[in-house]
Write a structure and sequence with these properties.
With 104 residues, the chain is mainly β. The protein has strands at residues 3-6, 11-18, 21-24, 27-34, 38-40, 45-52, 55-57, 60-62, 65-67, 70-73, 78-80, 83-84, 87-90, 95-97, 100-101. Strands 2, 4, 6, 8, 9, 11, 12, 14 and 15 form a nine-stranded parallel beta sheet that branches. A six-stranded parallel beta sheet has the order 1-3-5-7-10-13, with no helix packed on it.
């Protein structure tokens, strides 16, 4: 399956919806909805509510995360917002401010 890649020099303001995996290297402001995996790479900035399958976060998310699977906050990740997921892991060096709802 193909991935939707939002490159490092790209800023999207508005609503992004895809049936594919999403790899964010740039900036999204608004709303992101993906059917499959969402990867927010180091240096990426997401200022949006995001919904998807499993999440891997090494960059920054300001907004609520809703996952049908798990959310992995890697070292260097910064998340400000609520997380709703079946599982969440927070690595040493990750920052998280919000609430967790594991009742999925």
């Amino acid at each position: 399956m193909a991935s939707t890649v939002i490159g490092a020099g790209i800023t999207i303001e508005g609503e992004v919806t895809t049936d594919d995996d999403v790899v964010v290297q740039g900036t999204i402001r608004g709303k992101l909805t993906a059917r499959d995996a969402v990867t927010v790479e180091a240096g990426a900035v997401v200022e949006a509510d995001v919904t998807g399958g499993p999440f891997s976060v090494a960059g920054s998310i300001t907004g609520n995360i809703t996952s049908s699977d798990r959310v992995d906050l890697q070292s260097g990740a910064k998340v400000i917002g609520n997380v709703k997921a079946a599982r969440i892991t927070i690595a040493d060096g990750a920052q998280f401010k919000g609430n967790v709802d594991m009742d999925v």
